[in-house]
Amino acid sequence: MFAKLQCVVLDCTDVLELSRFYQSLLGGEVNRPDPRWSLGDDWATLHTDDGFVLAFQRVEDHRPPRWPDPAHPQQFHLDLGVEDLDRAQERVLGLGGTLLDEGGERRSWRVFADPAGHPFCLVRD
Questions:
Q1: DSSP of 21-61
Q2: Distance (Å, whole) CA 119 – CA 77
Q3: What is the pLDDT along the chain (125 residues), one digit of tens a residue?
Q4: Which residue of 39, 63, 83, 103 pairs with 107 in a disulfide if CB–CB is 3.0 to 4.6 A?
């Protein structure tokens, strides 16, 4: 090993909106001072309580993926573990997320999009 993952960066048009969306899902602190990054209108971070860092980069002409459209692929996605899919879904929708694929009762995950259009899954722990 010669590298260490510092963070995962999501492109979006509004870095504070998206960082606060994920803060509501994962907890943590938005824009905690960290010498690795300069914070501002074009860059925000979320330091989660378990040490993971998400970063958000402003892209003026951001074009979100359109899952499951192969012409506009998801590029990557996050899997977020939850105890109760129904309650977690209500919270995500209340925070501005969008349900993309509920699946069936037997499936243990559901696919959502964040406010900037990035797909992510809620997965039953």
A1: HHHHHH--EET---TT---BTTEEEEE-TTS-EEEEEE-TT
A2: 6
A3: 767 888 999 999 999 999 999 999 999 999 999 988 889 999 999 999 999 999 999 999 898 888 888 888 777 789 899 999 999 999 999 999 999 999 888 889 999 999 999 999 999 98
A4: 103
The encoded tokens of residue 92 equal 């995500």
- Strand 109-113 with 98-101, pairing: antiparallel
Angle at 36 between CA 30 and CA 37, to 5 degrees: 55
Burial 53-92 (b: 16+ CB within 10 A, else e): bbbbebeeeeebbebeeeeeebeebbebebeebeebbeeb
- For residue 121, the one-letter residue type is C
What size, in residues, is the chain?
Answer: 125
The pTM (predicted TM-score) of the whole model is 0.85
**Is residue 113 a contact partner of residue 64, using CB atoms and an 8 Å limit?**
yes
